[in-house]
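Ticket #384: bound-state structure for iron/sulfur cluster.
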Amino acid sequence: MPQRLIYDAAPLRIYWETTNACDLACRHCRAEAAPEADPRELSTTEGRALLEALRGFGSPLPHLVFTGGDPLKRADLFELIDHARGLGFHVSVAPSATPLLTEAAIGELAAHGVDAISLSLDAATAERHDAIRQVPGTFERTLRAAAAARAAGLPFQVNTLVCEETADDLPRIHEIVRELGAARWSLFFLVTVGRGNVLAPVTPERAEEILSWIAGLSSARMATGRGGLVITTTEAPQIRRVVAERMKAARPGPEGAADAGSPPPPRGHATHAGGVRDGNGILFISNVGDICPSGFLELPCGNVKVDDVVAVYRDAPLFRKLRVPTEFGGRCGRCEHALVCGGSRARAWSATGDPLAEDPLCTHEPGAPAPERPSDGSSPSLGG
Ligand code: SF4
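RESOLUTION: The complex was predicted; output attached.
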């Protein structure tokens, strides 16, 4: 069956920002979280109604991610998880590494049938990580939470911020993530929204080095038939172009394969499903019920308190435009990889105010020959 690239009927993943309350104060926080919840936050009744409305996407139901803020700040979290599971959803939870994230809380998440949790690790040392999270002890608490999740049999993903301040640490963080036994490592390429504008994004050239390194790590893992850590990116769909270029270069023939454009990457490669990006396969519901293309492209197209969330995802003008990459601006609009990549719409928006503009974090010139790449995943310039 061909891989889907346009998600016009239903998203693959829905992120519900259950609250913006959080006891951390991370320097790059998209949600600009605060210790206390917004009084307009969806109530338990409204949250239950939202879950019932999301069921309208039909089968197969999208995967639900309860995010924040810190979902553990909601007293009704487990009731909402149970309701979602009862409706047939698979649920993941993205808690913050605060004193609320105890061994008991992790055990309870596992007992309530949560598929996985995510934890954040932005540096290889406590000093650097805690400086970004702005609360001492967060690094150690994250490592303890990972051990507790592993002991509870609860799969976990580690999220790592990629920006100038963290880029040199990535190889060491990769080793830690592997040693912790994570199922997945997701590298989030900074988009300067929320408090993220106090940090510096990597340059397009540095991003290219990092993406090439990630693609090499995954290729090496697959070549040896090893299972284990799956590596993905967030707000860097360019990884699909990098993977496609590697595959093309590896194929026999005078110039690699002669076909134009990039094939959908195979399962298990360093990528999300081809084509998935803000508003196309991704849907975000804010803590107050705003319906947005993603948490980093927080442009409300409706509100779940008054609008039909399924209809908004399918038919709101912005959502529809985000699914037509040939209409994107600049290089993204004329790129042979646009269908599987399409660039980060959130970064285009944060850089220019236009979510359909070119993603500036890309070195690719459409139509130009692919650059030569190392084949072993090594990247000395990453500082590893
Ligand atoms: S130019 Fe745009 S669509 Fe093409 S690879 Fe770069 S970010 Fe992706």
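RESOLUTION NOTES: The beta strands are 13-17, 63-67, 91-93, 116-120, 156-162, 184-189, 230-234, 277-278, 281-285, 291-292.
TICKET STATUS: resolved
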